[in-house]
């Protein structure tokens, strides 16, 4: 175990009364759980059953009128949109746990912000469709559209070519340390590693190393372990 993971395992959990409404299998919910765990923060998980359409019922729409998970509660503050939630947590707890933002350097922070936008607007549109087609649709008994998969893999390849070049200049995407930028990629990457799309990550040496580094983090492993991160809490 390296020093980073040793510190993570020894860090006492802090309870601020946070609540997370979501589904532990949801990519967006996992994104929020990963940040909470990286920061050593306790939270109350509240399951929203996506299969039964609970997220479209009035009881949930009162939390998020757009009917999407997760919703994060901090006292009288309610937040939706997973990336907004992760940034809120990282800002509020900037001095605790893993340093996911760099608030001391405006130049580094600008790069972080840029790469978070790249993840959301360049990587995620392709990755989310591929996750939906190859992972989520089969769960619901729906047939994967191979033409859609092929089209979105071509788009994802172009993005990963840019990443391969960038990762030749920096260990992680925004800088030489793990940040929210890398964390935001994790949910879709984790699912896609269980599909034929895995080859797109493996065929690029620097991307492959980066994926191994970020998916191997103890906090992420815990976020993916539903007994530890959700049902067992």
Notes on the structure:
There is one protein chain. This protein is an alpha+beta fold and 233 residues long. The protein is 57% helix and 7% strand. It has a 4-stranded mixed beta sheet with strand order 2-1-3-4. α2 packs parallel to α4, α5 packs antiparallel against α6 and α5 packs parallel to α7. The longest helix has 34 residues. It is globular. The N terminus is likely disordered. GO terms for molecular function: glutathione transferase activity. Its main location: cytoplasm. One of its GO terms (cellular component) is cytosol. Its EC number is 2.5.1.18. It is found in: Cytoplasm, Cytosol.
Core attributes:
233 residues, alpha+beta, four-stranded mixed β-sheet, 11 helices, glutathione transferase activity, Glutathione-S-Trfase_C-like, detoxification, cytoplasm, transferase
Give me a quick take on this structure.
This protein has 233 residues and is an alpha+beta fold. The protein has a four-stranded mixed beta sheet with strand order 2-1-3-4.
Layout of helices and strands:
Layout: H1 3-10, E1 19-22, H2 27-38, E2 44-47, H3 58-61, E3 71-74, E4 77-80, H4 82-92, H5 106-139, H6 146-166, H7 180-192, H8 198-202, H9 205-215, H10 218-224, H11 226-231
Parallel strand pairs: 1-2
Antiparallel strand pairs: 1-3, 3-4
